[in-house]
Task: inverse folding
């Protein structure tokens, strides 16, 4: 069963790679694209790590990742002209479809959960099966053809863009940190303040570490990799905490930091501009009490629930 | 020097603060960490390639994009707008609590929305303002309440978005937690992480409902004291 699951999962990775490669082809054929060749190369490289990454030497995949990094560093990956959503068309279609338009999105979550809970396929394969079946449901509901579905997939892939691979890259960075022993160094430093074995102080260090690092960087994902390797594992998980509970809570603890930082411009500065507010920090000030309360909730939950 | 190994963290900090391209910053942080730890360039490329490929799961959400694009094209957002518009006769606080609930539900079903531009500005904030029946005597008080309602509408969006998004098993946050823990040697499933994210979503909603209840009381007190003054005249 496990071999079957792994093959099925590999199939979904290949499929994801083909979706990325499709965007590569669309870009390559689009003469109006401002960075046609470079953008196409980015998507082809990413597609290759997904579709054939398992079958080629690892250092070649590594080279491809570095290649993607060089392209994004020099801002050579661009969205280009994409089919914009037509407001009137969507308005007219939504009147015709009504609430049935919600069926595909709801089925995505339901199918994924049902497969994860009630079949031996597991959660990872569940996501793949749910993605493909909800797309089929969406095509049935909207009566759209394959071409339209592919075009919309291409539009979304480009809109998500290069930052879409950031979480995966951060998880990979975690592997490098572990191999280099970064976690051990931080653990050594922190142990001057937090005696190893004190669960409450360990939990507080993990939660507050997530909050503070997220506030500085404006990004909870990056903080998660660093803080989990350095504080979460030695001071919380290695002390007997459930990694699932501790990990899940650490991430949302990071979001408490996002609520309080001007570094997260998309969330805290954008609405100030959109709503024409007078105080540039008005949203952060409003969120401050919630954030502090939720930090306390996180510490309590992790301490009492993870152990 | 053991502390040299922390150079990667320093690079990430500086890179993110100065908004250098995030992907390049992360790769550079990995490269620097590997080199100061005595790994060769080839070791680094092997490690990076292997780690990237074995964490493909984190980006599996790309496979859901065609479906999401298709439903957007066929009016997902417009229909959601219509549903919210049909809500009438609620107090400001209750309306905002309801939006927070809807936002959390959207997170659970992985309905990706850019809430601030697509919902808060055109829909939620105006509807919340309308329901305050903001008729204070002094203009300054009016503006103060208006500003408060604006901030609150934006806060509902962020709170609902942040604390509920990880209840969906293919959320990129969930997959990153699973991927990172796996990299660090702990085998965990995305499903159990999504389940462990449920209590926080409920607690956040609970806190918001109480806070909005108090906000309603505060608002009605204000209007009452104002109409009282009006009566004395």
Result:
């Amino acid at each position: 069963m496990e071999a079957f699951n792994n093959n099925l999962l590999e199939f979904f990775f290949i499929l994801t790679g083909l979706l990325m490669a499709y965007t590569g082809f669309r870009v390559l054929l689009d003469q109006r694209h401002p960075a046609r060749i470079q953008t196409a190369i980015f998507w082809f490289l990413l597609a290759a790590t997904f579709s054939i990454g398992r079958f080629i030497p690892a250092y070649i995949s590594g080279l491809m990742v570095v290649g993607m990094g060089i392209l994004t560093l020099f801002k050579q990956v661009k969205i280009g002209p994409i089919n914009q959503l037509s407001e009137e068309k969507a308005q007219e279609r939504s009147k015709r479809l009504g609430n049935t338009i919600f069926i595909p999105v709801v089925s995505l979550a339901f199918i994924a959960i049902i497969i994860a809970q009630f079949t031996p396929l597991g959660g990872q394969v569940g996501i793949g099966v749910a993605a493909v079946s909800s797309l089929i449901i969406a095509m049935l509901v909207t009566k759209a053809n394959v071409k339209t579905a592919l075009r919309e997939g291409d539009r979304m892939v480009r809109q998500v863009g290069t930052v879409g691979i950031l979480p995966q890259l951060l998880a990979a960075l975690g592997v490098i940190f572990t191999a280099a022993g970064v976690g051990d160094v931080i653990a050594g430093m922190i142990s001057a303040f937090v005696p190893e074995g004190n669960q409450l102080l360990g939990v507080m260090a993990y939660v507050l570490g997530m909050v503070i690092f997220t506030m500085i960087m404006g990004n909870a994902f990056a903080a998660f990799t660093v803080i989990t390797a350095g504080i979460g594992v030695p001071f919380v998980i290695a002390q007997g905490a459930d990694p699932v509970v501790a990990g899940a809570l650490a991430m949302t603890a990071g979001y408490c930091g996002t609520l309080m930082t001007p570094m997260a411009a998309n969330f805290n500065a954008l609405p100030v501009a959109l709503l024409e507010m007078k105080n540039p920090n008005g949203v952060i000030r409003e969120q401050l009490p919630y954030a502090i309360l939720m930090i306390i909730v996180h510490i309590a939950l992790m301490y009492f629930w993870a152990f | 020097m053991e502390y040299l190994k922390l150079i990667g963290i320093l690079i990430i900090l500086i890179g993110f603060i100065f908004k250098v391209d995030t992907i390049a910053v992360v790769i550079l942080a990995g490269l620097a960490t590997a080199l100061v730890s005595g790994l060769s360039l080839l070791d680094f490329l092997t490690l990076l390639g292997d780690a990237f490929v074995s964490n493909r799961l984190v980006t599996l959400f790309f496979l859901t994009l065609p479906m999401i694009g298709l439903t957007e094209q066929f009016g997902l957002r417009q229909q959601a707008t219509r549903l919210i518009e049909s809500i009438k006769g609620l107090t400001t606080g209750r309306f905002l609590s309801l939006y927070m609930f809807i936002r959390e539900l959207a997170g659970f079903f992985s309905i990706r929305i850019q809430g601030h531009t697509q919902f808060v500005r055109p829909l939620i904030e105006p509807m919340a303002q309308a329901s305050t029946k903001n008729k204070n005597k002094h203009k300054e008080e009016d503006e103060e309440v208006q500003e408060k309602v604006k901030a609150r509408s934006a806060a509902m969006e962020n709170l609902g978005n942040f604390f509920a998004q990880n209840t969906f098993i293919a959320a990129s946050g969930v997959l990153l937690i699973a991927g990172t823990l796996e990299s660090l040697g702990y085998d965990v499933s995305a499903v159990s992480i999504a389940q462990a994210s449920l209590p926080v979503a409920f607690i956040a909603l609970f806190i918001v409902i109480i806070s909005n209840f108090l906000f309603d009381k505060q608002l009605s007190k204000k209007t009452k004291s104002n109409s009282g003054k009006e009566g004395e005249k």
